[in-house]
Design brief:
single chain, mainly alpha, 0% strand
């Protein structure tokens, strides 16, 4: 992404922190979890498929990030909706 914006990774990170008060990875995880929540609306998809569709290739990492950002596990969220 930094290359696409013609800045260094460090510069991009500083700009995001300054403008959005979020690191690149926090922003990326927010976008990915938002996508995962959309994918969870399809009951035919397993949680591992949702994770992969949102850009996570390690389901346990996805689970940790999801719970950290949403306050509930992906499975709990799915059962509520």
């Amino acid at each position: 992404m930094a290359d696409h914006c013609y800045v260094s990774r460090r510069r991009l990170s500083k700009l995001l922190n300054k403008r959005l008060n979020q690191s690149f990875y926090d922003l990326l995880n927010t976008v990915r979890v938002r996508q995962a929540k959309r994918l969870m609306d399809n009951p035919a998809l397993r949680i591992s498929e949702v994770a992969e569709g949102a850009g996570y290739f390690d389901t346990s990492h996805f689970s940790r990030v999801f719970k950290k950002l949403e306050g509930i596990s992906a499975g709990e969220r799915r059962s509520l909706h």
